[in-house]
User: What shape does this take?
Amino acid sequence: MEKTDITIIGAGIIGLAISYELSLRSKYKNILVIEQHPSFGQETSSRNSEVIHAGLYYPKDSLKTNLCLRGNRLLYALCEQHQIPYKKLGKLVIAPTPNDTKKIEDIYHNVLHCGVTHLQLLDKNQIRTLEPRISCVMGFLSPETGIIDSHALMKFFYEASKSKQVEFAFGVKAIGIEKKSSGYTLTVQEPNGDHFCFETTTVINAAGLHADKIAEFAGINIDTYHYRLHFNKGQYFRLAHPQKFNITSLIYPPPSATSLGIHITPDLAGGLRLGPDDQWVDTINYTINEKDKKKFFNDVRRYLPELTPNDLISDTSGIRPKLQKPDESFHDFVIAHEIDKGLENFINLIGIESPGLTSCLAIAEMVEEFLS
Ligand SMILES: Cc1cc2nc3c(=O)[nH]c(=O)nc-3n(C[C@H](O)[C@H](O)[C@H](O)COP(=O)(O)OP(=O)(O)OC[C@H]3O[C@@H](n4cnc5c(N)ncnc54)[C@H](O)[C@@H]3O)c2cc1C
Assistant: This one.
């Protein structure tokens, strides 16, 4: 039977960042990444807002806050060093009406409490000077928020890992994991439908929307440990004529319990995207419901009064792998070495929703620390 030291399941941004981080250290050898699709980044990592977040929304000392803040700094530095396209545009978090002011002030004070000091509270005139088309009563500026070409980032991780001898097996799906006295036997399905097994000392589960199933293969009761994932879909519409609005910052209204609210995100190609919304779904289906255009229009027109229904065209969607059920509040990322479950050298990354893209390098560092 073939044998490898480290197997990473999933070549999304998280699996790729981990393979990159490990490949930089000569002590890690024989690293294999398996990915069920024919290429990397075919699921959530290519279906998101491509925002480098600044850790504004999560509780102090949570993994989401800490990894986002560290990941933000690491990502900007990596982009600079390796010419990965990005822009630090800054983000305006705004109160469209007086009823929203308290929510925005609460976010502002939470961010200060988390140790972020570079925010600027702004009145409506200051916001109008920055973004003349935006209507609101107050808000704050997060200058450390930006946008990134996430595909270029994944391509960088992939090529840098390959240059350090990381092996990638595409079209290969993990379908079984058996714990052995030392390490694991992984069963995989190849593109032609054949199954084969190999041994690995370490398993890193970075399987995104399917990470709970991988944990279950290893014998973890995902209900006992609250690892079961629930899908929450986010759709986007695009503005047909972005130049009409001339918006250069990211514009965010108050968030809901499950999403950041339907916001406006400039992209690196000069486009403007609206979204994502949030809808609980049972299956993975990326089609856009045209009927939801009205909801997007009504939401965004609250703070962009010049918007007309004809400005909106349907775009893409993504699905959030959420650990929280529809009626539950905040759940943190699960990033765990499962040694206390009898699974030495088995690392789970579950519920890596936003800000996962921003946090990818900090998450990779954390995984490396588990192994060292
Ligand atoms: C609508 C939306 C907007 C978002 N916006 C942002 C944002 O602006 N900023 C930000 O920081 N974060 C954002 N996020 C979060 C970010 O996109 C995710 O945290 C990140 O992409 C997760 O990466 P991943 O590698 O864990 O998952 P994925 O990209 O889903 O990768 C997992 C990979 O595992 C593979 N896989 C699964 N099962 C198996 C198996 N059995 N065998 C082999 N391979 C398998 C899959 O095919 C997939 O390629 C957003 C998410 C969504 C849904």
